[in-house]
Amino acid sequence: MNRTIILIGLNHRTAGVEVREKFALTDVENFEKGLMAHCPVRECMALSTCNRVEIVAVSKRVPEREALDSILQYWAGICGGSAELLVDNIYQYTDLEAVEHLFTVACSLDSMVMGEPQILGQLKDAYRTAVERGTAKTIVNRLLHKSFSVAKRVRTETAIASSAVSISFAAVELAKKIFGALDGTRAMLVGAGEMAELAATHLLQNGVQDIIIANRTLSRARELSESLGGEAIQIENMADRLHEVDIVISSTGSPVAVIKAKDVKSVLKKRKNKPMFFIDIAVPRDIDPDVNNLDNIYLYDIDDLKEVVEDNMAQRQEEATKARMVVESETVTFGNWLKSLELQPTIVDLVDRSEEIAFRELTKTLKKIGPVDEKTRKALETLVLSVGRKSLHEPICFLKRRTQEEGSAERFIDLARRMFNLDDEKVPDTAHLDRKVGTCTTEDIEQLIDASKNKEQ
């Protein structure tokens, strides 16, 4: 085999944050260019995120170990780190194992939150830039395009991404169940912490029209309102604005409740008892539990959301089993394509050899029969080329079928190259006397032919 697909990486499972920081690729463009220049690789693509670094490469005609070591040394060197530390924290895959791993990553089966969509977008960005730099070529192109289609198939055929597995996402999913659709609804963030911000982002993505951010520090509320496109207010003015919103997400550091039942009761009158949804993701709780006793009020705290998340994680694990079956199937399909790629140079050589013989024999024939007009010469040329190509049709179809079989590709390609001497080996005139051509005897050929006939039947 004249090339190896190599995948080397580290992620949140194999390396701590301090190691991931050490070997993160801050300049992917120069890394890819350097890898092509200093390592025995013909194609490459690098992905670097907060949770993983993945390097995909296709080696040149060198031993697999040499290519792997070269990439590792270059990676460690460009990051100013120890190659030994890197080796202790990475995983390495080659050929179909590398293909299967990349498919798994694209489908987010290897992500910290299984089913999250961000990794697919990150892969697409990494691939796009590799194409622009010219480091992604035939095999990497096909591999990444296939990764994207496998991810799409997993999302279409399984429910791996349909259930909420984060607190903020679970909160939004519950809101959707209560309101049906969130289009046109209004929300308020009480506090401006990270979880509240994530929940607000999910709300906006699901159709919430406006968001009010109430916080003790007005500058932080304004900062967040600018990124979300909302309105910032002081937390002291929150009660005066509650009647304007349908959804309240509270996440402050207050030691006591900041939203009391009596406040909400007066708000309901202003809203003419239109339903309200309260999400309390603070510990200690921000919202008085008695709020839940009011009509048309739906209150969920962080424990309620955790139960939703745990149930949904169990559902995702079931869907992950289906997703892995898709990945395995698609890996086999990609392996068949790789085998056909290995066969392609042999097919080209067969056709070239056939045309070479056809033109040589046509030249001899024309010398014997004497001058002919241009129309006749072209007709004869078409005839000999057609005979040559048609005579190769069945052998080529045979090779394509046989190379789809597990473990058969290299054996049949080698046999075809020897039978037609496509590598121009010098065969002594007496070679036929010991009934051997290279390492393949006539008995070997007969057995292969018999085996192929039995399979065809």
Plain-language structure description:
The chain has 457 residues and is α/β, with parallel strands linked by helices. It has 3 domains: 5-157, Glutamyl-tRNA reductase, N-terminal domain (Beta Polymerase, domain 2); 167-306, Rossmann fold, CATH 3.40.50.720; 335-456, no CATH class. Helix content is 57%, strand content 13%. The chain has helices at residues 17-22, 28-38, 64-78, 83-89, 95-106, 118-133, 138-157, 167-179, 194-205, 218-228, 238-241, 261-270, 302-369, 374-402, 409-419, 442-456, and strands spanning 5-11, 41-48, 52-59, 91-94, 186-190, 210-215, 231-234, 247-250, 276-280, 297-301, 436-437, 440-441. The strands form 3 sheets. The chain has a 6-stranded parallel β-sheet with strand order 7-6-5-8-9-10. It has a 4-stranded antiparallel β-sheet with strand order 2-3-1-4, sandwiched between helices. A two-stranded antiparallel ribbon has the order 11-12. Strand 11 and strand 12 (440-441) form a beta hairpin. The protein is elongated. It starts with a strand and ends with a helix. The model is unreliable at 434-438 (pLDDT under 50).
Helix count, DSSP H or I runs of 4 or more residues: 16
Number of strands: 12
Look at the structure and name the CATH superfamily of the largest domain. Answer: Glutamyl-tRNA reductase, N-terminal domain
Helical content band: 55-70%
Rg calculated over all Cα atoms: 33 Å
How many domains? The number is 3
What does the average pLDDT come to?
Answer: 86
Q: Rough shape?
A: elongated
Tell me the CATH topology of the largest domain: Beta Polymerase, domain 2
C-alpha termini separation: 31 Å
Per CATH, which architecture of the largest domain? 2-Layer Sandwich
Q: What does the main sheet amount to?
A: 6 strands, parallel
Which strands sit side by side, in order, in the main sheet? 7-6-5-8-9-10
Please state the structural category: alpha/beta
CATH class of the largest domain: Alpha Beta
Percent strand equals 5-15%
**Which parts are unreliable, with pLDDT below 50 for 5 consecutive residues or more?**
434-438
Elements, N to C (H/E): EHHEEHHEHHHHEHEHEHEHEEHHHEEH
